[in-house]
Amino acid sequence: xxxxxxxxxxxxxxxxxxxxxxxxxxxxxxxxxxxxxxxxxxxxxxxxxxxxxxxxxxxxxxxxxxxxxxxxxxxxxxxxxxxxxxxxxxxxxxxxxxxxxxxxxxxxxxxxxxxxxxxxxxxxxxxxxxxxxxxxxxxxxxxxxxxxxxxxxxxxxxxxxxxxxxxxxxxxxxxxxxxxxxxxxxxxxxxx
Length: 192
Description:
Distance between the termini: 33 Å
Helix content: 25-40%
Radius of gyration: 15 Å
Number of helices: 6
């Protein structure tokens, strides 16, 4: 598959690092690059930009038929709160901006620093929670996540992003505001 990562900050670069170790073709593009061409040639587009950039990106390219992975957490500029939540999510807002795409929420609860390591904590793979309305798109992203070393956890429809984004925000609060550092990640334990 061809994967276009829009955003070359810490998260975009980190995802590019781990995805480049797979058999997939991976390209990273800044917002000033030819986003339309990158999206056109990709099977999967990862939006590794702040949530606020989504509307501009939606106008720059045709996302119809693409799997679009939203990794954002819609935090305010001062990181003190979420811009939206409980009744909608950044992922659902992005889906409304790109109605012909298959939007998937994933990778939003992982600090970028993890991408430089083995994607494990205490010997266990980090979990990434995957939400999408389209089951095929959700399965594709779960497979991709497993290929790079994550333990993908299917959390159902895209509306579940309403819980995943506050979880990502809580992780940010633990890591930065409460000083727990970036070597943390949420994990669910399931009984066998």
